[in-house]
From TrEMBL:
<dbReference type="InterPro" id="IPR001926">
    <property type="entry name" value="TrpB-like_PALP"/>
</dbReference>
<dbReference type="GO" id="GO:0008838">
    <property type="term" value="F:diaminopropionate ammonia-lyase activity"/>
</dbReference>
<keyword id="KW-0663">Pyridoxal phosphate</keyword>
<protein>
    <submittedName>
        <fullName>Diaminopropionate ammonia-lyase</fullName>
    </submittedName>
</protein>
<dbReference type="InterPro" id="IPR036052">
    <property type="entry name" value="TrpB-like_PALP_sf"/>
</dbReference>
<dbReference type="InterPro" id="IPR010081">
    <property type="entry name" value="DiNH2opropionate_NH3_lyase"/>
</dbReference>
<feature type="domain" description="Tryptophan synthase beta chain-like PALP">
    <location>
        <begin position="40"/>
        <end position="371"/>
    </location>
</feature>
<dbReference type="GO" id="GO:0030170">
    <property type="term" value="F:pyridoxal phosphate binding"/>
</dbReference>
<keyword id="KW-0456">Lyase</keyword>
<dbReference type="Pfam" id="PF00291">
    <property type="entry name" value="PALP"/>
</dbReference>
Length: 402
């Protein structure tokens, strides 16, 4: 499925709340917070020139979030950032003065953090980020995982000291259960999706993601003309599209949101013109994107600044995992998890369809930006699909550079 944005809000200015959340000053604050993280480093921006030639575009750059803060996913930027912000805000209230990020490791802040518990539902990556943030500040974390989350991903979260709570059903069921239990216990919910009356914290999570686009714009000689970003509830797509719209204004790129066909809540929302909950069907291999209800904040942003919406199939996701592991010509190999390369799957599909290609004005002058949103966050599953370990694939790059 491919459709252009026909929403009445399309190209309208961002809601002032969202413009503040995703603006240049907010992104600068995120960068400052990151400078206080011990393992912080900008992630690679990989040039795939061989693939660009094959697809008939000027360039393809992929921001590889598989190296982000030791978590292997862009989600490392969101949940932990929100946790830190919330702890500092609580400390400011208790101490009756502004508390800065530079004071995070002080005994005063640590004593306050120790009294706090952060909860969330996750497919895997967001939960690791919240758990990491809680461990960093000395707070507790309670992470709710649904039946489809692999034992490997559960164990990866648990290593950060979080209490793991299994929930029957889907991701959306785990979101509801996390909200219920957290409310009963007085815990703070740090969700990457939003619902009526719950918007600020998901906004902070999305604010954390603006670091990705800030790094991209500093690294690229010319800004991208086209962006393809995958979507679950919509958070990463909305953060990227919103910040690009603010930072580049009239020069903003043509932005396409890519959904799994089996969990296309953003695409169906765009088709309906308002947020919709889609029925649960057959699971998708794109586990981190298997969401059936969009984030209200994310849709409010995407309805204004996304230009097109499309779906890809499970076999498309598998194909790009293998393609990135065994690249064309001298292109470097990229380790992309089941959901990581879905934006590339969308680009390939659009480039091969004359109608989509024309609608997106995709051609020889196009500079395309993609985001590899996760590396091999489930190494066993990755090896089963690709036929090789992520370590082996990355070693090829090291050998080529030697």
């Amino acid at each position: 499925m491919f459709l252009t944005n026909t929403n009445p809000a399309y190209k309208a200015p961002l809601d002032p709340r969202d413009a503040e959340t995703l603006g240049v000053e907010a992104a600068a604050m995120v960068s400052r917070f990151l400078s206080h993280r011990e393992n912080n480093a900008e992630t690679p921006l990989v040039s795939l020139s061989g693939l660009a030639r094959e697809l008939g575009v000027s360039s393809i750059h992929m921001k590889d979030e598989g190296f982000r803060l030791g978590l292997g996913s862009f989600k490392a930027l969101g949940g932990s950032y929100a946790v830190i912000r919330l702890v500092l805000e609580e400390a400011s209230r208790h101490l009756s003065r502004p508390v800065d990020i530079s004071e995070l490791k002080t005994s005063e802040v640590a004593a306050i953090a120790k009294t706090m518990t952060f909860a969330c539902a996750t497919d895997g990556n967001h939960g690791r980020s919240v758990a990491q943030g809680a461990q960093l500040v000395g707070a507790r974390a309670a992470i709710f995982v649904h039946a489809g989350v692999s034992d490997e991903r559960v164990a990866a979260i648990g290593r950060y000291g979080a209490e793991m709570i299994r929930v029957a059903g889907t991701y959306d069921d785990s979101v509801k259960e996390a909200a219920r239990v957290a409310t009963e216990n007085g815990w703070t919910i740090v969700s990457d999706t939003s619902w009526p009356g719950y918007e600020r914290i998901p906004g902070l999570v999305m604010q954390g993601y603006t670091a990705i686009i800030g790094e991209v714009l500093r690294a690229m000689h010319e800004p991208p003309t086209h962006v393809f970003v995958q979507s679950g509830v919509g958070g990463i797509a909305a953060a990227a599209a919103g910040h690009l719209a603010i930072a580049l204004g009239d020069r903003r790129p043509i932005f396409t949101v890519v959904d799994p066909s089996r969990a296309a809540c953003i695409v169906e929302t765009a088709k309906a013109g308002h947020p919709v909950v889609i029925p649960h069907g057959e699971p998708t291999i794109m586990a981190m994107l298997e969401c059936y209800e969009p984030s209200l904040v994310a849709w409010r942003i995407l309805s204004r600044v996304a230009d097109a919406f499309m779906t890809v199939e499970d076999e498309d996701a598998i194909g790009v995992m293998k393609m990135l592991a065994n690249p064309i010509g001298a292109d470097p190999a990229v380790v992309a998890g089941e959901s990581g390369g879905v934006g590339l799957a969308g680009l390939i599909k659009a480039a091969g369809d004359p109608g989509s290609k024309a609608a997106l004005q995709l051609g020889p002058q196009s500079r395309v930006l993609l985001i590899n949103t996760e590396g091999a966050t489930d190494p066993k599953r990755y090896e089963e699909i690709v036929g090789e370990t992520s370590v082996s694939i990355l070693s090829k790059n090291a050998e080529a550079m030697a």
